[in-house]
Design a protein that fits this description.
The protein is 36% helix and 15% strand. The chain has three domains: 141 residues, Response regulator (Rossmann fold, 3-Layer(aba) Sandwich); 58 residues, 434 Repressor (Amino-terminal Domain) (Orthogonal Bundle), CATH 1.10.260.40; 132 residues, Response regulator (Rossmann fold, 3-Layer(aba) Sandwich). The protein is built from eleven helices and 13 strands. A seven-stranded mixed sheet has the order 1-13-11-10-9-7-8, with helices on both faces. A six-stranded parallel sheet has the order 3-2-4-5-6-12, with helices on both faces. It is α/β, with parallel strands linked by helices and 378 residues long. The longest helix has 17 residues.
Length: 378
């Protein structure tokens, strides 16, 4: 485990913060029961390994191998046993579920300063618990592959934290049958009512960013979104729209450009917006990396920030304090979100009480720096 110091959270001189309301709640866990084939009777008794082995036509040691993620089981046999384990809602007893001193941390992409903030938060909690962190990347997919799930089952970590990712039904059943808890941080889509998740107030953040620009006097405000498949991206742009509509300003679709949360896209979409004869006087970027790409586009076209163009980002990555001019952005508490996700998954592993809610959202806050100002005089 690599030890890293926690991120500095004090407000530097020259910055102001506007904090959104914070909703905190306790995560939830749904306990499974076994349903018999009969349509008239249900049983809460979980089938034993011997009964599952008998139904599958294999030995009890073979079922145990499947549970332990062993590789020396034929694929067809493994599939048959997994289906029966899932059908019977089988879960390993905690006493028999010996754990390795690990937390699995899964990213859909692992290539930016955004990911480093998340890693720092999970490592803070893991270090205090005497655990190490295993990093995985799903190569841009929002659901890890089957091989990953088998590897996790074989490792038997204390739990799994998935970032902007999710699990399909078979993967959930596999981890549940091994008593390996999982939590989704910043879920890309709806994780389901029974899946604990940690997020941020993305809609409030998009609203605050755009309202700040409106209050400065801007009337033509562009936006570069994140991926439409991601719930956080949709929430931010919905907040942008709400701020414009509340102010009585039109939502001009021509001023909204699709993005993917990468620097290069911020640059390309920025050029499209800023080359327009009726270019916007301000732009809300879906995240800080796209905002920095927009900076590059503005410089290339000879536009000054904030004299000619105001820019607001989202995330408050450390680099935003260092660029010129320092970026006004919405702070998403990434390190704190990661810490909350790691603590929650360890609580679920210890079965400390019965959680009553599954969705926790931490507050975002607007951090005003030097990249925003009044629109240029016409």
């Amino acid at each position: 485990m690599t030890a890293r110091e926690p991120a500095e959270t004090r407000t530097p001189p020259g910055e102001t913060r506007k904090t959104q309301s914070e909703s905190r709640s306790t995560p939830s866990e749904t306990r499974t029961t076994t349903t018999t084939a009969s349509t008239t009777a249900r049983s809460t008794r979980t089938a034993t390994l011997a009964e599952i082995a008998r139904e599958a036509g294999v030995s009890a040691p073979t079922v145990s191998k499947v549970l332990n993620g062993r590789a020396d089981v034929a694929p067809a046999t493994r599939t048959r046993v997994e289906e029966l384990l899932r059908a019977h809602g089988y879960r390993r007893r905690r006493a028999e579920a010996s754990r390795s001193p690990l937390i699995d941390l899964v990213f859909h992409e692992l290539e930016s300063a955004w990911a480093m903030e998340v890693i720092r938060g999970v490592e803070n909690v893991a270090r205090d618990a005497g655990l190490s962190v295993v990093l995985s990347e799903s190569a841009g997919r929002l659901t890890p592959g089957r091989t990953w799930a088998d590897q996790v089952a074989a490792r038997r970590p204390h739990g799994v934290v998935l970032v902007l990712s999710g699990l399909d039904e078979s993967q959930r059943a596999l981890l549940t049958s091994r008593s390996i808890p999982f939590v989704v941080m910043d879920p890309a889509g709806d994780p389901g009512a029974d899946v604990p998740s940690i997020g941020a107030t993305n809609w409030q953040g998009g609203l605050a960013a755009t309202r700040h620009l409106v209050e400065l006097g801007h009337r033509r405000i562009g936006a570069i979104t994140g991926p439409s498949r991601m719930m956080c991206s949709r929430a931010r742009i919905d907040g942008y729209r709400a701020a414009l509509e509340t102010a009585g300003l039109p939502v001009e679709q021509d001023l909204i450009r699709p993005g993917d949360f990468h620097h290069e896209t911020g640059y390309r979409r920025g050029l499209e917006l800023l080359r327009r004869p009726d270019r916007p006087t301000a732009v809300f970027a879906g995240n800080d990396l796209q905002a920095l790409g927009l900076y590059e586009a503005a410089r290339e076209l000879g536009l000054r920030i904030p004299e000619d163009l105001s820019v607001v980002g989202f995330d408050d990555l450390p680099v935003t304090r260092l660029v010129g001019p320092p970026l006004t952005t919405v702070r998403q508490p990434l390190t704190e979100m990661a810490e909350a996700a790691a603590k929650l998954v360890l609580d679920l592993a210890r079965e400390e009480g019965t959680p009553t809610a599954t969705r926790v959202e931490l507050a975002t806050s607007l951090v005003v720096r030097s990249s925003t100002g009044e629109p240029p005089a016409v």
